[in-house]
Design brief:
Length: 988
Amino acid sequence: MWGRRWVVLTAWACVAAMVGGCDRPSSNGRGARAAFAARPELLDFGPAAVGSTKTVKLKLANGGRAPVRIEGALSSVPNVEVPPFEPFSLSAGGETEIEVHFTPEVEGSVKGVVEIFTDADASEKTSQVAFTGLGVNALVEVKTPSLDYGNVTLETVAIRDLVLRNPTSVDSSMRLELRGPDADQFSSTMTGKDVVLKAGQDWTLPVGFKPNRLGTASAEARVKVCDTCEPVVVPLTGMGVAAELEISPVRLDFGRVAVNATAEQSIIVRNQGSAPMSYTGANIVSNAGGVFRVVSTPLPQGNTLKPGDAAEIRVAFTPAAVGTAPEGKVEIQVRASNSSAPVPKVALAGEGGSSCIGVQPSLVDFGEVAEGMAATRQVQVYNRCRTQVLVSDLQIATQRGGYFSLAQAPASLPIDPGKSAPVGVTFTPRAGAGDGVAQLFVTVRQGASTSTEGVALKGSGKLFPPCQYTMTPQVLNFGRVPVGSEVALGVSLRNTGTTPCFLASMQLAGGSDAVFSTGRVENTVVLPGMKASLLVHFKPDAAATFGGLAEAWVNHPSAGHPTVTVQGEGSTGCFAVQPTHVEFGLAKLTCEPRAKELVAYNRCAGPVTVQSMVLERDTEEISLSESPHFPLTLEANQSFRIHAKYEPTDEGEDLAALRFDLGQGSVYTASLVGRGASNANQVDSFIQESAAKVDVLFVVDNSGSMMEEQQSLGANFAAFMSAATASGVDYHIGVTTTGLDSSSGGWSSCPGGAEGGESGRLFPVNGSSPRIITPLTPNAAGVFATNTHVGVCHWNEQGLEAAYRALSDPLLHSLDDPRTPQTSDGNGGFIRDEARLAIIFVTDEEDFSSQPVPFYETYFKALKSNDPGKLSVSAIAGPVDLSSCSTASSSGTRYIQLANATGGVVESICTPNWAESLKKLSDTAFGPKRSFPLSDVPADTSQIVVSVNGVQITSGWVYDGASNSIVFDQGAAPPPGAYIEVTYPLGC
């Protein structure tokens, strides 16, 4: 049942003859002074599954000195209702809550208001609360990560978050209990308490680990997620240790910095041991070109770094030329007492390049502008820097042909990281001067450095004869629209003459009611028979009538300023259509028609008769199919569906209004918009991610010949983490083996509790070491070394199958493998949907898995929605030519085949430089995104144009038809913060 009826069951009922809205209850005449309010001001249901109900609470509060009577509540649109309640009084200072339900029946956005009716003064009789929601076809996902604390100093508390998510459309409760042999070392403030998670809510529950004894500690967080469910078991593991020295990062990469500008970053030195350390600062020991310098090294008292203390080293990079600077090194003077070991060094890297400020486009072409008129265009200033910048100066240098001026005051303009700001420029041609040329200079300040970007400006003055045109409609009437919903209709200016018309702009006139909004149609030339359209949006915020004015400027001596009256009515009636606005998008003329669906609802208490349904249009390109016959009577709570089709036959925007006449002047409106194109170019824009999430699965061969390779892998953790450290990646790293079955014993055994038969489970299955390494894992290098020493007890290498099992049910989302006697040996929490996935095989033998390689390729790609930018498979394996690798048992051809299919890296297992090989893998796993999906299919892939930061890139990328993406070559990906544009002819 829907809440467009009065919620007081014994009171008013809407009848068919009153479909425009029910009579509202009258005041009781007490004249009470009540300061009534409803909170929040906006109810946001968020996404809700089609067919399910989502509930939010609305608080009613009486802040006055007299009681107020709550008479009822009313919703303005279908699918949203307030459950019935009896009228009640709210005392002075009193508060109460009512529920509001959202039950979508079709995909799309729903907006409206709930009105609360009281007996307060006339000005306070109703209180209006807007709401918004989105109907979706939902998918159920469950994620519960395990908690690995790594090494923690005795009597020190480490906090990890247990992440919970309620993916359902109703509230759910949970209860946490801590059990296990070392549960006394783990704690949470929510233990034993019932916690309610709202529908769709993500929630983090802090769980502490405070070791009071040396060695491994393990326990279980048992999460009761429903009354009839078995508790979800989350393994808790940690180790009490004597602390150690930590330096972060181990490689400092400044990225791209403008030439002669300066960037600073920090190195943190932390004493995690139990004894003091000597610390006397830091100094640069390798610095070709003098581009690096130590800015500050505050020293602790007595030059002693006490246990638990940290020191910061600030290092600056000032590139003197474009290109990668020679690697530098900073030496940190820190030592344990009485130690003569070499002091640690941190590598320094950076690149001199263009400014991190971008201005787009680099050329503003006003085209032909009528003499005696002016045109205004905008450029966007993009901040790709890591901090806020200030546009401190705007200047225009006009060279010839007219007047170029700023459309706004040249005041200082702050821009936050990743954001942009517009700068308006106006061109007024000079009579008889012809072409105009100018340059816009944008000066930006970032800290103490400044950079100036230039934009070329050009336009052409032309004498146009008076324009012959029609502006339609004469009145843009939106009819009735539910309060809070949105409809978009168009005003069109059509050239009815035989000569071109110059249109300076179309827009809403100042003073129009704020419920109307639109973009701005910039200057253009409208050819004979063609039109330009202004799309006006109407979103009423109250049950009232609203008005505005649309205006345009064209070249005509006496009729150069046509206007159109804009009007609409906000409705709280019980008939509605969803969605109220349909976007067909950009459609190529030669493609198949695009189809959309609308639903008309009767949520009145009685029947409603729709006298007629009319599609108002000036083109046959938007049409209806399978429509019912009218007049049509809908019983209470009945609905009918309308199928709309868009099949453009010419270029340009096509608009239509769908009118539902319910009689007695009650007309409801929905809007339909599409854009046709023949050989139009589509432009897709992207900003390269500055940070990302990456999940890395190592599959390590545990056969008898792999001992040295495992040691080399574990010893070069810093090299593998180089790209992650440089870009601040949020990573998960796990290890499994190529073994599926436990070893039968013999000459060697394997650690970890599975005797080499991990069968996809993350190593070690017994939890003797953290099984998932994250940026918060203490002594991550030591943990990685432990987890990659998987032993050499096995004989049958099946790496592809092991990776498949690790990333499929029942291991994928479960914290325990139900098929094994070990506890907490599932992989739940390792894979994150939003993260990129990197799989790395390390083996000296061919793969002997049962399935063909394409089977595994298809599965791994589907795991990441077939987005090539979200998956890479790499291999350190036996090369195809074994003459260069005599210690490999065979070539890893199946691993190499899969790596090549996913754009991964292939390295020889006989590599003489494990650090260099692992750095290449690091760049692939953690480096910038290389794949950018297009919004439409190109008609001709040979005409794709790619630009990065305004510079066209002709090599280093390919178009991948399978994923409809631009994929950059390894090592050629745009840097973090880069602005990427892809232009291509539109296909179907």
